[in-house]
Amino acid sequence: MKPEFVKLNPQHVIPTIDDDGFILCESRPIMGYLVSKYAKNDSLYPKDPKKRGIVDQMLYFDAGSLHENMINCYVCILILLLDNNSLNNESHVVTEIKMPIISYETTGSPPCRLVRLAAAALGVTLNLKKISFENLEHLTPEYLKMNPQHMVPTIDDDGFIMCERNIIHVFISRAIITYLANQYGKDDSLYPKDPKKRALVDQRLYFDACTLYKAFIDYYYPIFIYKAPRDPTKYVAIGTALSFLEKFLEGQDYVAGKTMTLADLAIVVTVSTLEVSSYDLSKYKNVIRWFARIKSEAPKYEDNDVGAKVLKQWSEGVMKN
């Protein structure tokens, strides 16, 4: 692979665009950027926060479920059929919330912790409703009416429901936090309106959901839930994802720009989850430096620590039984 391409894109994946020196990878952030900058109207990507929230929800559903299943079923077969060299040349601001948003959640869940962390940074009050999976509260008729897939997190913003539509429930949490930022952000610091800045935040959110957090899920969840043997290949994937993050943070204080954004909050939840899962982060010096910064800057970060410890206790309890 050519060094100049790796320099542009440390993850060395396609598509990657160069818009007069602005480099962006990952197809969905690219689409959002192109529409935000060049579209004649907002029909493809509505500016209305609720309409955009639904579009984002479906984009994350596609990335995390539909597209992933297609990849698993077909792409490996297609790659074998292709010549290995065939690709080588190739604003809406609301200053006051009328009623607290209801957030249905569990304390230790990383996606639920992200929603709480983002809400705190945005100054949004959440009415937290704990859902007990042990007591089957996620299967009550009332909850199933809101969320047929009976997952968390789910939010109810005065009748506007955003709920999980993917078994890997990290994806909806990203749609929820961008909706909250669009609807209730007092400014755009956490989720910039500038198309280039927002596209970079979106790219990092997709990196977390589809690469870093997915690597955590793929390795740890079979161990936690099914007591499966440890898979060395999946363990290596975590290190690969962290190496990308290490590269992103070279000479940078934040993962997507000059200030803390939603991308930092999403990724810090994943990194803190790796930490309590006893993953050794010591060789990732940039990540450790950034991790300490976000811990000190993110409002109410201690709530994330509490949730991470709950997850740790749960996983240890499961492993003992």
From TrEMBL:
One Gene Ontology term of the molecular function aspect: glutathione transferase activity
Designated name of the protein: Uncharacterized protein
Residues of the GST C-terminal domain: 194-316
Coiled-coil blocks: none
Biological process terms in GO annotation: glutathione metabolic process
Lineage of source species: Eukaryota, Metazoa, Ecdysozoa, Arthropoda, Hexapoda
Domain GST N-terminal, residue spans: 1-42, 99-188
Subunit: Homodimer.
Pfam families the UniProt entry points to: GST_C (PF00043), GST_N_3 (PF13417)
